[in-house]
Write a structure and sequence with these properties.
Elements lengths: L4 H4 L12 E4 L2 E5 L12 E5 L6 E5 L6 H10 L4 E6 L11 H8 L2 E4 L5 H16 L21 E2 L5 E3 L4 E6 L8 E5 L4 E5 L17 H12 L5 E4 L8 H23 L4 E2 H8 L8 H17 L3 E4 L7 E4 L1
Parallel strand pairs: 4-5, 5-6, 6-7, 11-12
Antiparallel strand pairs: 1-2, 2-3, 3-4, 8-9, 9-10, 10-11, 13-15, 14-15
Bound molecules: zinc ion.
């Protein structure tokens, strides 16, 4: 029996913004002051390498926030920042890369630029919100993307990025966004999970660039790995990751069953499905829930189990085949 994910979710006290926290022998963290309902207390930027002298890597420099960049640069004073690793191009992860690179001369590593499908989907959302007289840019930290970031070195799955004190195996983990990477650090049996696995919350899968089938494949793959600690960009570390990932997978399978059961009663659109399935959540999260339901429906469609009328868009009515 898998423990429900709601019983495994973790919390932590709000951090002292701009303060360096030593979270393990080779890893320090500084949290940016960009808390939101999608970023928890904010973006946790990791510095990997010994605490003084020598070479270090920075993972996810964070949002374009001068105070955060200054705190990061102060933390690595006297050290050589040789590598900047970016998990993905959401606005709370990559925009500070440019300033940190300019100050340190580090080489940047990432899967690739912000995906076209995500740019298009965001433009459509902004247009719909504007037409409906709503705020086109809600302060959710995941609204748009960082279209300026282009990695110096484009990473593919299984690439290894190594420096003086660190060795990272790069895992391509699409789902939350198609250019998402996780970084497995051999020295501490630690996986830097970005937004792919977070301790404080489940991950938003914004279809169509976000792909639930890919996401679940990525989770299944983690079950066979040996890392004992996960360090997400948001929230606390996960120190018993396998049961946690099993619970995330089971949570998604349960959602899929709920959607199939709801559609069993007749065709429904996404808003009706959200009302049916997520009756217990805050209305402010209904949009994110709708995006997640859309991701499930697209995955069901790919498996030949559901069809959309007139086509697979957010307004369509969906029915079982
Ligand atoms: Zn993200």
């Amino acid at each position: 029996m898998v423990t429900p994910i709601t019983e495994l979710l973790l919390t932590e006290e709000p951090p002292e913004y701009g303060q360096v926290e030593q979270v393990s022998p080779l890893v320090r963290r500084i949290v940016a002051e960009n808390p939101s309902r999608f970023t928890y207390h904010g973006t946790g930027t990791f510095i990997v390498g010994p605490g003084c002298g020598g070479e270090v890597a920075i993972i996810d420099p964070g949002p374009a926030d001068n105070a955060h960049v200054s705190a990061l640069l102060a933390a690595v004073e006297g050290q050589a920042v040789t590598h900047i690793l970016v998990t993905h191009t959401h606005p709370d992860h990559s925009p500070a890369t440019a300033a940190v690179k300019a100050a340190t001369g580090a080489t940047t590593y990432g899967f690739g630029p912000h995906p076209e499908a995500a740019i298009k989907a965001h433009e459509e959302r902004v247009q719909q919100a504007t037409e409906a007289g709503e705020d086109p840019e809600p302060d959710d930290g995941e609204g748009g993307g960082d279209t300026d970031f282009v990695p110096d070195e484009a990473i593919v799955d299984a690439d290894v990025v190594a420096g003086e004190h660190f060795t990272f195996e790069c895992l391509h983990t699409p789902g939350h966004i198609s250019n998402h990477l996780c970084f497995a650090m051999a020295e501490e049996q630690t996986l830097f999970t970005g937004d792919h696995v977070m301790g404080w919350s489940t991950t938003v899968i914004p279809a169509p660039d976000g792909d639930l089938a890919d996401y679940m494949d990525g989770l299944s793959r983690l079950l066979g790995r040996s890392e004992t600690t996960y360090r997400p960009t948001h929230g606390p570390a996960i120190t018993d990751p396998v049961p946690f990932v099993a619970a995330l997978l089971s949570h998604r399978l349960h959602r899929e069953e709920q959607i199939v059961a709801a559609l069993g009663a007749g065709p429904m659109d996404i808003a009706a499905l959200v009302g049916d399935i997520y009756s217990d959540i805050d209305e402010a999260l209904h949009k994110a829930a709708g995006a997640s339901v859309f991701a499930h429906l697209l995955a069901l469609q790919r498996k030949g189990r559901a069809t959309a009328d007139p086509g697979p868009d957010p307004e369509a009515k969906w029915f079982l085949n």
